[in-house]
Description:
By secondary structure, the chain is of the alpha+beta class. It has helices spanning 17-28, 98-108, 129-134, 173-183, 237-244, and strands spanning 5-11, 33-35, 44-51, 65-74, 76-78, 87-90, 113-114, 123-124, 127-128, 144-145, 148-156, 160-168, 188-198, 201-202, 207-208, 232-235, 249-250, 258-263, 269-276, 280-286.
Amino acid sequence: MANFGFLLIDKPAGITSFNVISQLRKITSIKRIGHTGTLDPFATGLLPICIGSATRLARYVSSARKTYIATIKFGFLTDTGDITGETVSTQSVTEITPSDLEKAVTSILQLKEQIPPAYSAIKVNGKRAYSLARQGKEVKLAPRPITIYDFQIIKAEADTLIYQTTVSKGTYIRSLTEQFAALTGNLATTIQLQRSAVDKLELSQAVKLNELTADNWQKQLISPDRVLTLPQLVLSDEEASRFMNGRFNELSFYSEKEFLVIKKSNLQTLGIARLLPGNLLKPDIVLPQ
């Protein structure tokens, strides 16, 4: 049975993404494990994990779009932007009408940049911003370009609201909550956060960490062709043999794209290749079989 591929984990609240990897190392007895994008400790939801040789494919996992469901509470701000932080400001909640919400959503969808929160992993002069913030030092971060692809209100009550949003990579939902609340004349903090999708990968495909054991984890492995969005190139057995031995294959076309290479006879993922001028297929990553 294969010992490399991807695991889609439904991360619970209260642990870091590294804690997830640490637990998986114990379950799988494999040290070479990585993730393709962290989730804050208080957040839950989809966390794609690379197992074994699949860690070499991490940079090919597309995370251009991510979907989140956020629960926010009006009336206060914390230093971290979420429920785990210390309250730094409070304000009476201003009544928010359906018209106010509609206008705020319209404005959010037009956002083009965002200032990341001080409690983030962005480096400032070689140090993580959150490390400086914890030391009480002032952290100034430059605005970054973002795209809000979708923003929908799921439920709105007097002092709480739930929204779902699909955003570009690098968008901070904690900051988005504060920006949205400001558009309604209020303060707000994210109290719950769930990541429900990363591009074509969905939370419904994920497995809960506490359901994995040394006996069943391999049954949950997903092959690279179901995760990567690269164009696929299917090779004959003879061509596949040449690829697996690191040799070039001559093809009938040329493209500047990289390809996920598949063996025709059994649909196994062999690795990553690119075409060179002269229509030569060059193996870049060859996975064990």
